[in-house]
Each structure stands twice: as structure tokens, then as C-alpha cells.
């Protein structure tokens, strides 16, 4: 598509932000971020309010809309701003014909996730944060011993994988967990 969109990146059912350009009694014309024009019909706005489309949106406003249909050749889209449609969200349909799913690869992946770190007996955590270190409490104190006062470390908690602990160097030899 000339807009840089494809049938995967602009698919029916997606919730997308649109900018309202024109609001009439019967419909509204909106513009998608990619430049495609869209139209919101009167039956595609919030029916709970009892207001016309003019009472729901105004020119210049950016609203969330659900893509009802797309005419790729004409660069036109039909959208819904009904709260119920938007609340349901978008779920990409994944189709796997019978016999094409790699059961062995799935089992290998699950086994890899279950693999535990031999030294701690816990699953190794990977957290992308500059203060996170895979230390236990003693290792954190040893590492912080060479650091200046006020330094801190985020580390795995002994309470489980859904907890983190912070160790803070208050003064030389004094640590708060």
C-alpha cells in the first residue's frame, strides 16, 4: 500500500486513533495516522448516550475507533466509535492447520523455561534494568561493600519469582534490605 500499511498492520477489528476532520448530522469523516480517510456512520457511534454523532465527537478531536472495513484500493475505511466495540479490543486471529504445529519445539521451549539455575535452585530471571543484579542478599552486601553510600541493587527475592528485593547501602557495613 502507498501509505506504508499492509493487511496485517491495518486489519479489520483493530483499535486505532483517528483524528476527526468533519462532523455532520449523519456521519463523521476522520483521518487515520497513515493518511487514509475514514467514515463513522451514525449507527457506529455510542448508542447508549442517545445523542447524535455531533454530541459524541467534535472536529479536531482524536478518538479511538475500531476498524470495521477497509477499501485498500480506494484508501477508505469504515470505523466504529461505539464504546462496546472499542472495549472488546482486537485479537489477531492465529490459524494453525491441524498437523502444522511443532509439538516437539513447544515441549523444548517449555522445558527450557522450567530449567532451574543449578546453584540457587531458582529459575534464572532476566530483567532489563540497570540496577538489577542476579544476587542473593549476601552477594548484594559484598558487591555494595565496595560501592559508595546510597548505592542500591535490585535483586530477586527469596519470596518467589513474583517478588523483587532492594538492598541499599546506608553506610559502611550498614545495609537495608
Automatic annotation (TrEMBL):
Gene3D superfamilies per UniProt: Nucleic acid-binding proteins, SH2 domain
The protein's GO terms of the molecular function aspect are: histone binding; nucleic acid binding; nucleosome binding
Q: Which part of the chain is the S1 motif domain? A: 13-84
- GO cellular-component term (any): transcription elongation factor complex
Q: Name one GO biological process term.
A: nucleosome organization
Q: Name one Pfam family in it.
A: SH2_2
Its domain of life? Eukaryota
Q: PANTHER family this protein is in?
A: TRANSCRIPTION ELONGATION FACTOR SPT6 (PTHR10145)
* Protein name in UniProt: S1 motif domain-containing protein
What is the organism of origin for this protein?
Answer: Verticillium longisporum
Amino acid at each position: 500500500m502507498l501509505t506504508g500499511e499492509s493487511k496485517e498492520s491495518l486489519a479489520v477489528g483493530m483499535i486505532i486513533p483517528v483524528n476527526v476532520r468533519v462532523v455532520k448530522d449523519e456521519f463523521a469523516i476522520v483521518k487515520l495516522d497513515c493518511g487514509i480517510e475514514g467514515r463513522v456512520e451514525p449507527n457506529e457511534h455510542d448508542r447508549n448516550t442517545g445523542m447524535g454523532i455531533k454530541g459524541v465527537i467534535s472536529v479536531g478531536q482524536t478518538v479511538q475507533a475500531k476498524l470495521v472495513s477497509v477499501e485498500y484500493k480506494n484508501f477508505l475505511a469504515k470505523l466504529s466509535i461505539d464504546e462496546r466495540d472499542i472495549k472488546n479490543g482486537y485479537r489477531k486471529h492465529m490459524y494453525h492447520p491441524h498437523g502444522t504445529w511443532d509439538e516437539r519445539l513447544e515441549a523444548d521451549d517449555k522445558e527450557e523455561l522450567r530449567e532451574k539455575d543449578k546453584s540457587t535452585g531458582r529459575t534464572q530471571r532476566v530483567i532489563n534494568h540497570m540496577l538489577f543484579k542476579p544476587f542473593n542478599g549476601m552477594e548484594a552486601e559484598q558487591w555494595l561493600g565496595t560501592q559508595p553510600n546510597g548505592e542500591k541493587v535490585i535483586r530477586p527475592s527469596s519470596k518467589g519469582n513474583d517478588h523483587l528485593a532492594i538492598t541499599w547501602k546506608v553506610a559502611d557495613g550498614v545495609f537495608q534490605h
